[in-house]
Design brief:
Blueprint (H helix, E strand, L loop, with lengths): L1 H10 L2 H9 L14 H7 L3 H9 L15 H6 L7 H13 L21 H8 L17 E7 L6 H10 L6 E6 L6 H12 L8 E5 L9 H18 L5 E5 L6 H13 L8 E11 L3 H5 L19 H4 L6 H10 L3 E5 L6 H14 L4 E4 L7 H5 L13 H38 L18 H6 L54 H6 L1 E8 L5 H8 L27 H7 L13 E8 L7 E8 L2 E9 L18 H9 L15 E8 L3 H9 L5 H11 L8 E4 L4 E4 L1
Parallel strand pairs: 1-4, 1-5, 2-3, 2-4, 5-6, 6-7
Antiparallel strand pairs: 8-12, 9-10, 9-12, 10-11, 13-14
């Protein structure tokens, strides 16, 4: 079979060569003298065949048996049978595909040693990626990058294959990152992009096999992107879209950090492309089981490798399954709940409601067999600021703001329902006092003013300026460090029948399934011991001897219960259990009395909880380490200033220190949860002792805010 393909390559019959590849032929099988079709096409300068063979997966650095020539040697060698222009184009394609110009033949000769052609010699003496170092035109259109995230089996590859089958002539490049020893996903993608009669315009695919793209394969990821960009430039075009299918264990935040580091570090590839969109694919039928899991990822290799790897490979991922699942969902611009054909309509509606609360700024899509609109995969985020433009603090700021907006909507709906019910009763009975419902939230304690006063955003980011916020691998106070993030869009369902359970209204989905969220905001520090006692009321109990989780909490099948049922005992069905067990997700910034200078990050999901330091509060951060040096007109500085307490607030002297926690749960009793959290705050007597004896032991704050100009200044 191979000699026939070699003959077609020699004659420049690209269609014939493609037919052999589409029929299942390995393009790198050698003939009797070790020449592959790529050797032959390169030697004859048949650059169209070289292009087809590279797309078909031909090895670009394989050596023949006769003299150890690589395809690059064959293309570079002076010969009278091939036109120089064809050889030059072939060399560009080979170099773009990763051909090694420093590989010697059996006699130690490099491709450069075989040619006298000045243009070919110039190509061979360029450093790898030199073509990307040329000045970029100011109006260049950068290739947008879409990340596909999700556990193994969720349907990422299926979604990708469906998109590639229907790409409508778009030029798409694909990077597949699979931590399995045999890259199954890349094979499936290649089969789809190379053998579909309806899709003759093949997509280019690079596979990463040296680990997860967010950690030990991060350099390989950028190299793969550069390789694809060079390949496109060698052909004279830019890709319309680049799609990176991440491994099941990939952490989106780390990927974002890698891209930001590459951008600020001046990586040339980022002059030609930019991270734009994150899509997370969720296995809908498995969601409840995954969210209730107590396992670390290394105990669930089925979620990220096709075949069980070596023990030392699997042990690298210590994150809890639910912790990584939540990060992948909270970071997404699109959350795709796949395999809806395996769930009931009520189950999908409930899952969509949970997903929308976990990520209020994402577009939540339900589908089967990965069939989503093409513009989800190859288009940008649908309105608003994309997750990829944020950093960890931006994520949390938007999450808090979105949760506050949801509370406002619920209260507004409750007022409308109450007014509507009152009018109906008045009309029916002629007097308006019957059927009246209260709009009070039921906790008129002294902290209510602080709750209403707290700024709508949390802390701005450090932007690598030495401020510690968002650096999730610092020493933990409780647990071990990784953070969480944000979202946008509709909650399932419409308007219901106006039975407003007293303190606030909700959408039909929230009422039906009892799923709500709220923000706890205070400007007084927590007592560390009392805070610990509340944390222990979450479903995070462990065996003191082994450290293993022993709590039996499970995320209930909310589609088979009601909001009223959920309120009976909260999530998990533990009648009489702590109100904290109705919380399925909580996150935010925490101010602990014995950690006066540094903000703590609180993250809880299912059985996972951690509380770890993020770095200095902005009030304790030197002004020169603020974004833009503290320039009041900078957007990030404005956000930070808004985090500081007003002068009218008793806590104004403590700057931006505060409690700012988002709670998401099922059947939550908001007033009781707030009361329980309030018990953790220092009392008035404790505050006096703390101010006199504890605060003076810490370094004084370095920054304050000028009230009139709303600008920060050094103290």
């Amino acid at each position: 079979m191979s000699p026939c393909c070699c003959a077609g390559a020699a004659q420049g019959e690209a269609a014939e060569v493609k037919r052999f590849i589409d029929g299942g032929m390995n393009p790198s099988i050698p003939n009797s003298v070790g020449q592959t079709a790529l050797h032959v096409a390169s030697m004859w300068g048949r650059h169209t065949c070289v292009d087809v063979l590279i797309k078909g997966g031909a090895q670009v650095n394989v050596k023949n048996f006769v003299n150890g020539f690589t395809p690059l040697h064959c293309a570079a060698q002076d010969n009278e049978r091939a036109e120089d222009e064809g050889r030059i184009q072939a060399i560009k394609l080979l170099l773009a595909a990763g051909a090694d110009a420093e590989a010697p033949d059996q006699n130690g000769r490099l491709p450069l040693d075989l040619t006298s052609n000045a243009e070919i010699r110039a190509l061979l003496t360029e450093e790898p990626g030199q073509d990307l170092l040329k000045p970029v035109k100011p109006n260049i259109r950068k290739t947008p990058i879409t990340l596909l995230s999700g556990f193994l089996g969720a349907g990422k590859t299926t979604l990708l294959r469906v998109a590639l089958e229907n790409k409508q002539g778009l030029k798409i490049a694909v990077v597949v990152n699979d931590v399995a020893k045999v890259n199954i996903d890349s094979k499936l993608v290649r089969e789809r992009t190379q053998r579909s009669d309806s899709n003759p315009d093949m997509a280019d695919c690079i596979e990463l096999q040296n680990g997860c793209a967010c950690c030990n394969a991060s350099d390989e990821l950028l190299q793969g992107i550069s390789q694809l960009l060079r390949l496109g430039l060698a052909r004279g075009y830019f890709y319309d879209r680049m799609i990176i299918e991440l491994s099941g264990v990939a952490e989106p935040k780390n990927i974002r950090a890698e891209f930001e580091a590459a951008r600020t570090g001046g990586h040339m590839a980022l002059l030609y492309c930019e991270l734009q969109t994150l899509i997370t694919v969720v296995d809908a039928p498995s969601f409840t089981q995954l969210y209730s899991s107590r396992d670390a990822m290394h105990r669930r290799p089925d979620l990220f490798v096709e075949e069980k790897g070596e023990p030392e490979e699997e042990a690298e991922c210590e994150r809890k399954v639910v912790d990584l699942l939540v990060e992948q969902m909270e970071c997404a611009d699109f959350v795709v709940l796949n395999k809806k054909d395996k769930c009931t309509e009520d189950e999908m509606s409930a899952l969509a409601t949970i997903a929308q609360h976990i990520n209020p700024t994402a577009h939540v899509i339900t589908c089967e067999w990965g069939k989503v609109p093409l513009d989800v995969v190859v288009g940008g985020p649908k309105g608003g600021r994309s997750w990829v433009q944020n950093d960890d603090e931006d994520d949390l700021r938007h999450a808090i703001q979105a949760a506050k907006e949801q509370v406002k909507k619920r209260k507004a709906l409750a007022e409308l329902e109450s007014a509507s019910q009152e009018r109906a009763n008045s009309h029916a009975r002629g007097h308006g006092h019957e059927g009246k419902t209260s709009d009070s939230d039921g906790h008129g304690n002294a902290h209510e003013l602080a709750h209403e006063h707290a700024a709508d955003v949390c802390m701005s980011d450090a932007h690598g300026q030495g401020h510690g916020h968002g650096h999730g691998h610092e020493q933990s106070v409780v647990g071990h460090g990784h953070e969480a993030v944000v979202g946008h869009e509709q909650a399932a369902g419409g308007h219901g029948h106006g039975h407003s359970h007293g303190d606030r209204g909700a959408t039909t989905a929230e009422t039906k399934y009892g799923i709500t969220s709220f923000v706890y905001s205070r400007r007084r520090p927590f007592h560390p011991q009392r805070l610990l006692q509340v944390v222990l009321q979450l479903p995070v109990r462990v065996d003191p001897n082994t450290g293993d989780l022993t709590d039996e909490w499970k995320l209930p099948n909310v589609a088979r219960s009601t909001g009223a049922a959920a309120e009976e005992g909260g999530a998990g069905g533990d009648v009489g259990a702590s109100v904290m067990r109705s919380i399925i997700r909580s996150k935010g910034f925490v101010w602990v009395a014995n950690q006066h200078l540094s903000a703590q990050y609180w993250s809880h999901a299912g059985h996972h909880f951690e509380l770890h330091p993020l770095g200095l509060w902005w009030a304790a951060t030197p002004l020169q380490e603020w974004p833009a040096g503290g320039n009041k007109d900078h957007a990030d500085v404005k956000a930070i200033v808004n985090d500081f307490a007003s002068q009218a607030d008793p806590a104004w002297k403590y700057g931006d220190r505060r409690q700012e926690l988002v709670f998401i749960g099922m059947g939550m009793k908001e007033d009781k949860i707030e009361a329980l959290m309030d018990q953790c705050l220092l009392t008035d007597d404790e505050m006096r002792v703390w101010q006199e004896q504890v605060v003076p032991k810490f370094n004084p704050d370095l920054v304050a805010i000028d009230v009139k100009s709303a600008s920060p200044y050094s103290i």
